[in-house]
């Protein structure tokens, strides 16, 4: 999806009157990710389907750990960009720990599909906002410089070992800085993403063939083995029962033969369309059946049916069958087709479920800072101490001087001594950390990794300095409205 650049001057600031200096003229960018409910529904199913197979398949964002930068320290102190300001953390839902780790529920991973089609992730956090629907992460975790935004972008708070305990939150709109997009300026390497209400799988339900055909979302036909007697009764509902066997050269007979049983034979849509209706050899067997499948199943399918995608983005296979009536031998099983749909549920607004960290800007350096993330990449020397499966943290004071970097366009980053490796990108930098409440104020997000002493080990990380321009981008995101994508019965909302 192409990016939409909106200059600040074209849109008035909201009435919250964040402390932005009059002389500043920043620009912000609003990026549509998955604003439509039907597309968000498909994105959420993509990550949760097959017991979260896509989540487990993802790897950290494609940083090359061998290209970590060197720190160039600047003179001076905190950039002068107006008075400091802050928005307090949300209290609802934010207290307490995740079940498995001693960390806040707000911390999680963002998952997306990159331009090469690979499943990727970065770190992120829920952040307080007017509509309790905002995620803070790195700008490079939303799009590649000069490229389109990433596809199927979702946030999973409290992520732990492939589980999405609090649901999946699909990105609707991302708000970033104009300079990062236009000039690849990492002084603006941050993003605030407004997400839809949470989405979780809620089991399955057997429905009629008519309801099955109309359903948008995961659906499949499950065979239930039945007796020969049950099969005989079921044949009145042609298209829902069949037999399977490995009989040697079974005799072809007519459907009225007292021993005849029905097989279904998968054919091409052309053969199916030429077949007639009724009970006879080669006649149509029920209506074509479309099933939502995993990408691996979709790619591996070599049958005569058709492959495609449905209106919510699921990979689908449509199969066509005709009748084959046989006089069976002894080796045969009988089946009834159960039409099953996958149900979903709305888990609520992000901030109502896990809370949201506060937000701060124009803060002094040299503050105690807690940084969270999911490091995974090896150090430049090849050592790999992190798996990316569980979140880690660093704690310490940020440097008193802003820094520059060699490889990236960096002039005013804040730096922290920390050995977390890529995968931690986008993780929050929290000041005024309250350990009992598990809350603080987001004052940065991990952007760049450094080997400052030249021993081929990451030893520092840095974040863009959150100033008045950051406050402006946040202010725009703060008013973004999103919605539920499923109704009370698991149905897709338009």
Automatic annotation (TrEMBL):
InterPro entries in alphabetical order: Glutamyl_endopeptidase, Peptidase_S1_PA, Peptidase_S1_PA_chymotrypsin
Protein name: V8-like Glu-specific endopeptidase
Gene3D superfamilies reported for this sequence: Trypsin-like serine proteases (2.40.10.10)
Region feature (Disordered): 74-100
Keywords recorded for this protein, A-Z: Signal
Superkingdom: Bacteria
Signal peptide, first to last residue: 1-19
